[in-house]
Fold this protein.
Amino acid sequence: MDLILILASGIATGTVLLYATVGEIFSERSGILNLGVEGMMLIGAMAAYRAAAATNSAWMGLLVAMLAAGLVSQIHAFITITLQADQVISGLALNFLATGISLVLGEGLTSLRDVVPQLPKFSIPGLSQIPWLGGIFFYNHSIMVYIGYLFIPLTWYFINRTRPGLHLRAVGEYPAAADTLGIRVYFTRYLYVFVGGLLAGLAGATISLSISPGWFGGLTTAGQGWIAIGLVIFAQWNPYRAAFGGFTFGALRRLVLDLQGPALIFGLSNPFHYNIHYGFFLKMIPYIFTVVFLVIGSSQANRKRIGTPAALGLPYIRGQRGL
Amino acid sequence: MRKKSIWLVISLVLIAAFVFTACQPAPADEAPVAEEAEEVEEETEEEAAADGGLQIPDAEEGMFNVAVVMLSNHDDGGWSQAQWEGINYVQDNMDGVHTAYVELVAEGADSEQVFRALARKGFDLIFGGSFGYMDPMQVVAEEFPDIGFVHISGYKFDGVNFGNLFGEMEVMKYMAGMIAGSRAKADGATRVGGMATFPIPEELRLFNAYALGVAETCPDCDVDIRWIFTWHDPIVEREGADSLFDAGSHVVMTGADTPASALAAADRDGVYGITYDWIGSCTIDECLTAPYWVWGPEFIRVIEEVQAGTYPYMADYFGASGGGVGLYGLMEGQELQPGVASLPAEDLQKIQDVMALVQAGEFDRFDVFAGPIIDIDGNVIVPDGEFMTQADIDQFAPGAPGFEATYGMYWWNQNIAADLPDL
């Protein structure tokens, strides 16, 4: 059991959750709850694999995956923004629709294994030599991991420090006020639901082209999208915390496995070796925090404190009084 | 008010999400009722959304109608795909038989609905392709005494119209263990790994067979085990394989569906993976071999016996010599994977000799589990000169009434570096 390896593995597999969670943060920050993340990731995983197989380029696969999932997300956008229907129902429906689409269009992809190019994996020269940190963050990771490192501060800066980011937050907090200031509420929401779709597609492509290359039908994403939705609340709509949550979740999952190995830890009998079911408790920890934040957020006064967008889940109807 | 209710809905959905991710195909037949209810909701909507394989198919008049119910999708690259190819083989090779399949059927209450629907539609023989279908299938079999129900894996049967079908996979896993051990010894390693899914008799049996095979070719090797609690999750399987390699395993064999063991090996230098279930799963050079299922001929055998009225609906355990199971690279007409072709000639000869005996029907599961077998604590499980019975191989002691096990499968072979899982 080696802590560096566990944390490095958490970074590698947590990157999938990072992209999906940040995508959902964008969408929810604009006020649209999109529960279709799992389905959109599946579309992304399928489209990435198919496009990479057809063009022999993993990058083309990535691009197609993002566009495909972005396109599918617009169904949800149309239903919830223009038709002002219930976001929860529409999001769930999107899941089933997207799962169905990806299963049909993914037909025959399982047998293509090994002819499909993968995204590159490499160590960063110099940085990977740093003791501890180098082994965790910069050694033999997929390029998607390194892109993720740049992506986290950029998204935080975009949401919190730029004019379009301010517009995004305004639309999610108080769309009527944003509207009077000339911010195009409908357009903004459409845009960020699309961004959410792009990133979910990216997350799916990261699985099928890098983390665990291949197409395994509906089991390719195996519930990662649902975890991402939970992590948004854990992250309190903040990209840094999303990264922390994603990496922690990945590392815990790996830790649970590694703990089964040694019979002794620090000279003491290792309970996880003798009772493998104890591992489930560790895996549960991120969810405990999610539930805690949910409970805090259920009180109106506390919602602002944990950062819930005030208009989340509410359709905006122009000219109607109040929200 | 409205906001409150949205939070309520979000909470409910999140709970559903956790349940969804937490209850991957549960191995136990006592999956909590609440979880099943959640799954039913999700599955019913899904059935309406996707292609024909998700709908209940129609029976054809005047034909012998056979259906296979599968856990995951027909192109999952593993367990279900092998069954799907089996039923296609039946369609291509039998006259007067109409075949159909239903995919993505959750275990538990969901599958009961599907079995009942198929029975009502007039199917004559229904195969259930997952461990957790066992009890629901038995319930439906009692309701439709004229229809044949055959459950793949599991251990229950009634001798009337509810049978149990499985095959001698442990022989292939044993030989996979010989290959893994030989590879490790040739490369100067002393550890191989096994990625196990759920603590059920089948899984302990297969990894014990693997460990016994390892001991044949590499007496100094130990076998590290990771329990991943899923049959099919590309990311968790990947993490499990990495965890084993990082802890020093030279070869990792998986008990789950995806080729993660080989893919993880490909990212490292000089280590190997062994995949499972489907003949097409072992393609890259880092994959040594794959024990796989060939259901087609076995389905045909069962169908013919059912048509003739002679099928006993007991524990139908087909032998490895009949071609129902295979070991990729070592079967007729296949080429050895590079990692196997470069094994020491003497080991390779030993492995091929066992394969020849298996094909001739002279080496079977009872030879794999022949005494002496000693467990991790040094206890003698099977004394020298004694053999296990089918009941021992299938179950944990004491076994089902009328099918009692004396030794059972609740033990780890002495070269396994893990503790027995609590049940």
Observations:
- Residues 3-29 of chain A form the longest helix (27 residues).
- Residues 3-225 of chain A form one domain.
- Residues 13 and 250 of chain A are 6 Å apart (CA to CA).
